[in-house]
Specification:
The complex is a heterotrimer of chains A (391), B (98) and C (347). Chain A contains 16 helices and 14 strands. Chain A has 391 residues and is α/β, with parallel strands linked by helices. In chain A, the strands form 3 sheets. Chain A has a 7-stranded parallel β-sheet with strand order 10-11-9-8-12-13-14, with helices on both faces. The radius of gyration of chain C is 19 Å and the shape is globular. The chains are: A alpha/beta (391), B mainly beta (98), C alpha/beta (347).
Chain lengths: 391, 98, 347
């Protein structure tokens, strides 16, 4: 299948969904955002980010590009921003400049909370009318950016679900698409192996840089990721070395050359397999990949993590059949079938790939059916290193 | 009618396979390595999730899983042997870092 | 000195002996991944309130402990008739650990685990059954008259840096409350510092030292004759009832959360910037500070002008008394934000 049906966006990107998003720009506007969106079918998020007077510019920038990237994700047909005061509404400009259909409610200017909710509903109605006119068109499969993630991992993650997802990743990359491998903390120990697959020496250097950087952060907080890995539970389960453990996680990205390394919430400019620097926190990782332009995600899970995304369809792949059965409300695919001999790694990978294409064209995931819309704003993690090197 | 596999070879270049059904000593398993069938016999009890060698390795030889080097053999390893902390060491563990 | 209005309100006495001015069931997801299930459980139940937060996964030691500390404080709040903890199964702030911590303090509590239950929908069904059990059990909590001396009032730090004409009014309000025997917790905003007095990875202890900063000096200037004790962010409060200072992050949502987790029945919030926001367990009484808050006259209980008349403190005290009897504007509007202060980035 070379062409699939996607929504064409003015930014030159293609979406797998057609959401209207209500996005509070500061935490205190979350309640107003919720009140505006309630009962309208619009997607909305809440978060805890409140700019502080002593905020680091690096943090402000990270949050700004996360919110901007999220608002301009191709799955979002139009976005209504909610701010408390005019100076917190400044993201309106870059979002509009990116070509996105956007409107803004500033509570103080609207005349208080109640009036802002009324104004917001009016503006939201106009955005929803616009979105309802968007239709799917034929687009190359290569326009897809797939986010990959694992959470609630168990001993089987590196044996069934992740390698099967890797097969699907390779299929998508070979078809011209992009796959994001993230979760930098889970790659510690495998950096030299990943660097060997880098397409250029710059990419190899970037791989080392982001992995060593995260390791330094964790160390600075007094925890030794490398020394404590694999943990006793992992060793009991059969994992011998940290390379083995990290490779199991990295397997989600498949085997193709690594074309680019991008910072958190930055859109890759290369096609193919890319690495994004993200923390291991499941929600922050998904948000970062969405802000980077991913339109669909596959999330492997051992114990059964139900999380989804307000704007991305998240396909859940269980590592084992017991979890797939027990949490069938939440699980889309069962990679445990590989253990039962009902699938091979290759056939399971093919199944995952076909599901990605079906979901991209409108098939709903369990997470979407259940209304999972987890969202969190990731903070700048490297201040502790900046302080140390400034001394 | 598919059989429940006892081991999984995750990549054709791998020198170890992952045990997905606990292997009693003497159990024979087969994997396809580089397109060729390789048959090995478990030398000792190998638990679920652990590794069984499908190729010979000398001390210092790389141990390959996922098509990549996951560490180096610290003792001679025969096909069918349990590969774990007693004969495999990491290349990138804390003590080895500069 | 203002005359304290009569409270004329009733409270519910909890099994632990504390008095609550609301009778709500609280649904607490121990981790962000359980928030959707918590939301589904509370939806459609007017007496239930789910908490939304972004914490629990991949938190390093100090942060995970702070999240547990705050959630435990909220879950054992006297305004809460019963608490349902919703966990996932694999997270750092283990659902079962949080549930046991809440139950150990004598709070009526139940637990639902998403992975144990078999997914989101099964957890929602089990959660609604658990809420019904909590509802039945708490129906017997007796109604008793409540006086100012039974109350703990939390106040955000925004008033400390107001011009004297306005800050004087707040000082008057606090003096009246303290004179009547209420416990007053004053949030003292501090620029973000790891642990707020404790080292990274440590839970702030009760012996936190408050070096004199701007906020502390302002408190001393407003209350020259008062002594105070210091409590760590989100509690626990010192045993002696009186004036308590609580170091807190500057973000107002975080100040409210800390005050509520420490047990404030009511929160007094001067609105000097940003938006009015509520709290999941403690009603928030907003005082809009002019000139900024004139735009929010419909969203706050009292607007305090630049040149307040003599009765201004009395108006605020009356608003606090009303909040014991009826819903505040923030509650009517459904504003129940939450923020747990992060010490370290997530991993």
């Amino acid at each position: 299948m070379d062409e699939i049906l996607l929504y064409r966006r003015p930014m030159g990107t293609w979406g797998t969904r057609n959401h209207v998003l209500v996005l509070p720009l500061v935490a205190s506007a979350s309640g107003v955002a919720r009140a505006i969106a309630r009962g309208t079918g619009a997607a909305w998020v809440e978060h805890d980010y409140e700019p502080a007077p002593d905020e680091l510019p690096e943090n402000r920038e990270r949050v700004a590009r996360t919110l901007t990237g999220f608002a301009t994700n191709p799955n979002v047909a139009a976005v209504l921003l909610v701010a408390d005061t005019p100076d917190h509404g400044v993201l309106m400009d870059p979002i509009r400049a990116a070509g996105q259909r956007v409107d803004l409610v500033v509570v103080a200017e609207a005349g208080g909370v109640r009036r802002a909710i009324a104004q917001g509903r009016e503006r939201l109605e106009a955005l929803c009318a616009f979105a309802s006119r968007c239709v799917r068109e034929k687009a190359p499969v290569g326009e897809l950016i797939l986010g990959t993630e694992c959470g609630g991992s168990d001993a089987l993650s590196g044996i069934t679900a992740n390698p099967a997802l890797g097969v699907a990743s390779d299929l998508l990359v070979d078809a011209g698409g992009t796959v994001i491998l993230a979760e930098t903390t889970e790659l510690i120990g495998a950096e030299h192996l990943l660097a060997r697959r880098a397409a250029t020496p710059e990419v190899a250097r970037d791989i080392y840089r982001i992995i060593h950087r995260y390791e330094a952060v964790v160390l600075a907080h007094g925890e030794d990721i490398r020394g404590a890995n694999p943990a006793p539970g992992n060793i009991e389960g059969g994992l011998t070395t940290i390379e083995e453990k990290s490779l199991g996680a990295a397997k989600k990205g498949g085997t193709r050359p690594i074309r680019q390394v991008v910072e958190y919430a930055v859109r890759p400019t290369a096609r193919g397999l890319v690495i994004m620097d993200t923390p291991g926190n499941d929600i922050e990782q998904m948000v970062g990949m969405a802000a980077g332009g991913a339109q669909v995600a596959v999330f492997t899970t051992g114990r059964g993590t139900p999380t989804g995304s307000p704007i991305l369809p998240v396909i859940k792949v269980a590592t084992n059949s017991a979890t797939a059965q027990r949490m069938q409300d939440n699980i889309d695919l069962d990679a445990g079938r590989i253990l039962e001999g009902e699938e091979t790694l290759e056939s399971m990978g093919q199944k995952i790939y076909e599901t990605i294409l079906a979901v991209a064209q409108g098939a709903l995931t369990k997470a979407e059916l259940l209304g999972h819309r987890e969202f969190a704003v990731s903070r700048y993690p490297f201040a502790v290193l900046d302080r140390a090197s400034a001394r | 009618m598919p059989d429940r596999p006892a081991v999984l070879l995750l990549d054709p270049r791998d020198t170890v396979a992952v045990v997905v059904r606990p292997l009693a000593p003497g159990t024979e398993v087969e994997v396809l390595r580089g397109g060729k069938p390789v048959r090995v016999s478990a030398e000792t009890l190998i638990p679920f999730g652990h590794k069984i060698a499908v190729a010979s390795m000398e001390p210092g030889d790389p141990v390959i899983k996922y098509g990549e080097v996951i560490g180096y053999a610290t003792a001679p390893i025969r096909p069918g042997q349990h590969v774990h902390v007693h004969n495999l060491r990491s290349d990138r563990a804390r003590s080895a870092r500069e | 000195m203002s005359d304290l209005p009569r409270l004329e309100a009733v409270a519910r006495r909890r099994p632990q002996g504390s008095l609550g001015i609301r009778h709500r069931l609280l649904v607490v997801p121990s981790v962000v991944c359980a928030a959707q299930a918590a939301h589904g459980i509370a939806e459609g139940a007017p007496d239930a309130q789910a908490i939304e937060h972004q914490h629990g996964c991949s938190q390093l030691g100090g942060d995970a402990r702070l999240t547990e500390h705050v959630l435990t404080g909220l879950g054992t709040h006297p305004n809460v008739a019963g608490t349902l903890v919703v966990g996932l199964g694999c997270e750092t702030v283990q659902g079962m650990v949080l549930y046991r911590a809440i139950a150990a303090r004598g709070q009526r509590a139940e637990f639902v685990g998403i992975q144990q239950a078999g997914g989101t929908q099964a957890a929602v069904r089990a959660g609604r059954d658990a809420l019904e059990r909590l509802r039945q059990a708490s129906a017997a909590d007796p109604e008793v008259p409540v006086s100012w001396a039974d109350l703990t009032v939390g106040i955000e730090g925004g008033w400390l840096s107001l011009p004297p004409a306005q800050s004087r009014v707040f000082a008057e309000v606090l003096e009246a409350l303290l004179g009547a025997g209420a416990v007053v917790i004053q949030a003292v905003p501090r620029p973000s510092a790891p642990g707020l007095g404790a080292g990274p990875g440590e839970v702030p202890s009760a012996s936190v030292d408050l070096p004199a900063g701007d906020a502390e000096r302002l408190v001393a200037r407003s209350f020259p004759a008062r002594s105070w004790e210091v409590a760590p962010y989100a509690g626990p409060l010192p045993p002696a009832r009186g004036f308590v200072l609580m170091p807190s992050p500057e973000a107002r949502v975080a100040q409210k959360t800390g005050l509520a987790a420490a047990g404030a029945h009511l929160i007094l919030s001067p609105l000097t910037g940003g938006l009015p926001a509520g709290s999941p367990v403690a009603p928030v009484v907003h005082v809009g500070i002019a000139p900024y808050a004139r735009a929010f006259a419909d969203d706050v209980e009292v607007v305090l002008g630049e040149d307040p008349p003599p009765g201004a403190a009395g108006a605020i005290l009356r608003a606090l008394a009303s909040a014991c009897r009826e819903e505040t504007v923030a509650e009517v509007l459904g504003m129940t934000e939450m923020a747990i202060h992060r010490i370290a980035p997530t991993m």
